[in-house]
Amino acid sequence: MVSPDPVSGPMSRPLSGIVVQKYGGSSVADAAAIKRVARRIVEAKKAGNAVVVAVSAMGDSTDELLDLANQVSPLPPARELDMLLTSGERISMALLAMAISDLGFSARSFTGSQAGVITDSVHGKAKIIDVTPGRIQSAIDEGHIVIVAGFQGVSQDTKEITTLGRGGTDTTAVALAAALQADVCEIYTDVDGVFTADPRIVPAAQKLATVTYEEMLELAACGAKVLHLRCVEYARRYDIPIHVRSSFSQLEGTVVSGSIDHQEPTMEQAIIAGVAHDRSEAKITVVGVPDKVGEAARIFEALAGAQINLDMIVQNVSAAATNLTDISFTLPRSDGQTAMTTLASLQSEVGFDSLLYDDKIGKVSLIGAGMRSHPGVTAKFFSALAGAGVSLRMISTSEIRISVVVDEDEVDSAVAAAHTAFDLDASEVEAVVYGGSGR
Ligand code: ASP
Ligand code: MG
Predict the structure, then answer these.
(1) Is the pLDDT of residue 6 over 50?
(2) Could you please report the per-residue DSSP string of 81-146?
C-alpha cells in the first residue's frame, strides 16, 4: 500500500469519506481507457477516500454478446443470457483492478453476487432487494480499492445470477452508495452532465448545475439516457446525491439531489429543467371497442398479465350512433409484438373491430418544477410546436411534465423549437460528446 498523499486543493474531502464511482462502457472501452480510469480512481484514493467502483462492460461489448447470443438462438433462455451478459462486467472489473495494481495500489474485484447485491429472480430486469456489503466493507477496511461488476446480482430465492436491465450499472453504484452510507455517488460517463436537451439534437443545449430527484426521474423516464431510471428512484429513496460527470474531463458535472417539495421558489429559478425525447415507443389503437363498463379493464388486465408497461393512454369519446370508442396507448416498441398478440386473442371476447400498430412515433417532453407555479407553460409549448409545423398525436401531463406524441421524423424539430421557446439555448456551444457509439 502506498500511503495517502497530503490532502490539498479543492478536490480534498474529509478523510473518512467513502466515495462510490461508476464508470460506463465508453469510459473503459479499451486498454488505454482502462488505464486512464485507473489513474482517476487512484487520485480519489490518494485524496483520502475509501473508493468503491461499479464498472460497466467495455465499450459495446454487452451489445456484441447479445448479437452473439442471437446468432446461436433466436430466443436464448433468460438464465443463460444473464450468465453470458454478466461476463462483460467480469472482464472490465478484473482489468481495472490489474491497472490499479500496476499503479502501486491494491484493488479487489467482486462480481455482483460476491459484493452482496441481492435481487429478485426476474432474469434480464431483476430488482435489487437488498445489499449485504460485508465482503466489500472488509476489503475497504483492509485498505483496498473495491471494484464491483455492474448491472448484476444474485437472486435471493433461486440463487441464480441475474442482470438489472440495460444501463443497470448506475443502479448498482447507487445501491452500493446507499448500503455503504457513502457521501456521494459519482457517475462517470461520456458527457459532461445532464443537459437541457440532447446535445446531438440541440447543439446549444446547456449543462444543468443541479437538478432535483423528481425532475431527473421525469427526464430519465422520458428518454434522457444519461442516467438509468431505477438508479434515480433508488437515490431519491435513500437521499444519495448523484454527481453525473465526464470521465474525459475534470469539469464539474450535474448534481442530482433535493426534492421539489423543499425548493425555495425564487424569481431566478428556471421554470423548465429540460426537453427530453424518446424514440423507443410505439402506439397501439384498439378500434371500435364497445362502450360498456369493464371493456377497457379487460384490455388493460390482459396487457398487465403479459408484463407490459403502458405509458400514455387516450380513450376517444364514443360516437353516439355506434356506441363504439377507440382506445390508444403507447408502450415500449420491444413489447409491441407481445401486446398485439395478446390483444388479438381478446378480439372475439371483447368484440372490438381491429388493431392498429404504429412505431413511427416519438415522444417529446417538457420537464420543470417551475411549471407548477407558472401559468401559460402549456400554451407556450404548443404554440412553439405549431410554429415548427409539428402535429400533436397524443398529450399527457404530470405535475412537472408535459409530453406529446409526434411523428418520428418531427421529433428533432419539436425538441429544438421547445428548447428555444423556453430560452434554454446557450449563447455559446458548450456540450461535448466524448465517446460512445450511442448504441
Ligand atoms: N453493460 C450493461 C449495458 O450495456 C450495463 C451497463 O452498461 O450499465 O447495458
Ligand atoms: Mg454499456
Answers:
(1) no
(2) HHHHHHHHHHHHHHHHHHHHHHTT--EEEE-TTTTTEEE-S-TTS--EEEE--HHHHHHHHTT-EE
